[in-house]
Amino acid sequence: MASFKAPLAIHSGGKILPFINFKPTLETWKSLLFGANQNVFLSRFTNSLIVTISSSVLALIFGALGAYGLERFRYRYGPLKNENLSLLIISQRMMPPIVASIAVFVFFRYFKLLDTRQGLIISYLWFNLPLAVFLLMGFFRDIPKEIEDAASIDGCGKFKQFWLIALPLTFPGLVATFLVCFIFAWNEFLLALILTFNKAMTLPIMVSSLDAEMEPMYWLIGAVGVVVILPSIFVSLVLDKYLVGGLRIGGIK
Hints:
elongated; 253 residues; mainly alpha
């Protein structure tokens, strides 16, 4: 409702019934999409979209390869076995990003990745990859190994077994994993706050900056907040049937 209110209507109290308590207006949306705030908004929206999709897709690709390798092959590096490697990977997701924020900032500054989309993609991949590996290991674990053994008898090598057998059977799981990574990356605030200043700034940082003025612009905060929420809802609705199947681990047809 705030995005459809004039500033005077917002400051007059918490009235939420349009045409009864207040007269709706599109001035905020016009300013955001076509007016003075257009360039800033489009820049932040494009940054969020590119960084989120890129990091989620990369997390899915590397996560699928890592999860399949840990489930189908036996590793031993000194005292470390598959179970230890799995725990080591997922422990990176348990660690709060704030713990490594200073080290990441120094590292990115040295390689000139501060305030770049590439830098944000790498940082988002860093905290989404362990989650993707952890989720996909469960899906690959539920695929009967006999199916892949039958494929190997027909002449399929390991990569073909992964590409032609394992991935199609875990497709709902891949979609569910992508959606989880997408939501985490789209809503991420801390790393974007530390690693960006202007060029690569994302929508969550834009919302925060609108509240940091001398007078918070609640009408703009409301409009940008709606835009921040919509992509996650849209992606969830589009991928809903795959998400339900993906979260029902073990339901292979």
